[in-house]
């Protein structure tokens, strides 16, 4: 009995201490901004108040149950409309609520103050990735899940950052006030990085904003926290906080890469080059629905392998990728992908799996489809 008590008390003490909570992921993340620090302190304050109320209320209840139990022979007291009691149970909760509301309102007002930013980034949620536009730097990119499919399907061991790693992280300078303008392209999403104290719903047709100022260089991870469809759990967020010098170098690198990507839109590719590039584009943008083997999901997402679109007229295939299919989950990629990327993914789809068409689509073909009269969405069913 004594050993059982020691084990129980030791376990309780261990779980209630900070290191144990952090180790098992039961506590909030370590704050990395002033807003996150304020949220953390507010959480602790409210928890203490709630714990105090719990102890007082349940202590009084159990005291009354034991002290005035029937077996002790204590006669029950009968009273109604006691003015003193009614004043006490009205005034005390009011004071407690006001004491909790004041610091909470102060933190919320600070979170909503997005004035005087050093950097503004527009965030757009898509099924299932994030788009980022640096409004001060003329930089745009998409950020998608980078966890290998083999880990997701269980064919390989899970990595350290399983489902919390992306191909293109958000990069911001340390100590700078960053304003995020958040919206969505299709359904509701929510952008959340807990260590930075930044969370906001992404709503189609609306732009909402938040801000943060990271205290230290580092990598901070978050996720979409609004149920947004089949792959809701597959659209993580990664924010890389770097020094001002490293940030300027990153901006220069992104602008150079944009120029190279622009040059790709005017060159001729071999079939092998297109297929290699198209496979990467497919895995980042198409595999979530149509699956890595191109066989889709019966009843939800059509197969591409052996489909009439991928083996039929090339113009219809290009039109479907550019414009999507209204009323279905097939998104329009005209604004999301470059001419070279669309040419590559169409070529890949027409030569992968059972689709041995031997077709080759060049960036000029995509530019032509964009530049002419809008290509009608393909009517052929996949």
Short characterization:
This protein is α+β, with helices and mostly antiparallel strands.
Helix-strand layout with pairing:
Blueprint: H1 2-16, H2 18-23, H3 34-67, H4 83-112, E1 119-126, E2 129-134, E3 139-143, H5 149-152, E4 170-173, E5 178-184, E6 189-193, E7 198-202, E8 208-212, E9 218-224, E10 236-242, H6 244-264, H7 271-285, H8 287-290, H9 308-311, H10 314-323, H11 339-351, H12 363-371
Parallel strand pairs: 1-5, 4-10
Antiparallel strand pairs: 1-2, 2-3, 5-8, 6-7, 6-9, 9-10
Helix pairs in contact: 3-4, 7-11, 11-12
Portion of residues within helices: 40-55%
State the CATH class of the largest domain: Mainly Beta
- Low-confidence region ranges: 1-5, 7-23, 373-382
The largest beta-sheet arranges its strands as 3-2-1-5-8
Integer-rounded radius of gyration? 28 Å
Number of domains: 3
Helix count, per DSSP? 12
Looking at the overall shape, the CATH architecture of the largest domain is Sandwich
**Overall pLDDT metric:** 87
Oligomeric form: single chain
User: What fraction of the residues are assigned to beta strands by DSSP?
Assistant: 15-25%
Biggest sheet layout: 5 strands, mixed
Transmembrane segments: 46-66, 87-105
Domain Cytochrome oxidase subunit II copper A binding: 116-253
GO molecular function, one term: oxidoreductase activity
Pfam family, one: Cytochrome_CBB3
């Amino acid at each position: 009995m004594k050993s059982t008590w020691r084990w129980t008390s030791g376990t309780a003490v261990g779980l209630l201490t900070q290191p144990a909570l952090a180790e098992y992921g039961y506590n909030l993340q370590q704050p990395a901004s002033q807003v996150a620090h304020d949220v953390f302190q507010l959480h602790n304050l409210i928890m203490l108040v709630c714990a105090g109320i719990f102890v007082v209320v349940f202590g009084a209840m159990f005291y009354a149950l034991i002290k005035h139990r029937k077996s002790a022979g204590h006669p029950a007291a009968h009273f109604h409309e006691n003015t003193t009691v009614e004043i006490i149970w009205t005034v005390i909760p009011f004071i407690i609520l006001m004491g909790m509301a004041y610091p909470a309102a102060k933190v919320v007002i600070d979170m909503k103050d997005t004035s005087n930013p050093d950097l503004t980034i527009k965030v757009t949620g898509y099924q299932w990735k994030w788009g980022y536009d640096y409004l001060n730097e003329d930089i745009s990119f998409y950020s998608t899940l980078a966890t290998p499919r083999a880990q997701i399907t269980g064919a390989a061991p899970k990595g350290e950052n399983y489902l919390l790693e992306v191909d293109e992280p958000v990069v911001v300078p340390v100590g700078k006030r960053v304003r995020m303008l958040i919206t969505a392209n299709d359904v509701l999403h929510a952008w959340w990085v807990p260590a930075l104290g930044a969370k906001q719903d992404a709503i189609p047709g609306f732009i909402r904003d938040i801000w943060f100022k990271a205290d230290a260089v580092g990598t901070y991870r978050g996720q979409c926290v609004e149920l947004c469809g089949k792959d809701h759990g597959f659209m993580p967020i990664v924010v890389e906080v770097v020094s001002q010098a490293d940030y300027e170098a990153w901006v220069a690198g992104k602008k150079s890469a944009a120029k190279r990507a622009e040059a790709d839109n005017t060159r001729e590719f071999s079939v092998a080059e297109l297929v290699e590039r198209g496979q990467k584009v497919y895995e980042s943008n198409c595999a979530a629905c149509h699956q890595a083997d191109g066989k889709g999901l019966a009843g939800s997402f059509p197969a591409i392998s052996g489909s009439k679109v991928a083996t039929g007229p090339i113009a219809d295939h290009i039109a479907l990728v550019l414009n999507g299919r209204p009323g279905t989950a097939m998104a329009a990629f005209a604004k999301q992908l470059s001419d070279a990327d669309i040419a590559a993914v169409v070529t890949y789809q027409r030569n992968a799996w059972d689709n041995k068409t031997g077709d080759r689509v060049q960036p000029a073909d995509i530019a032509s489809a964009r530049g002419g009269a809008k290509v009608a969405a393909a009517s052929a069913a996949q």
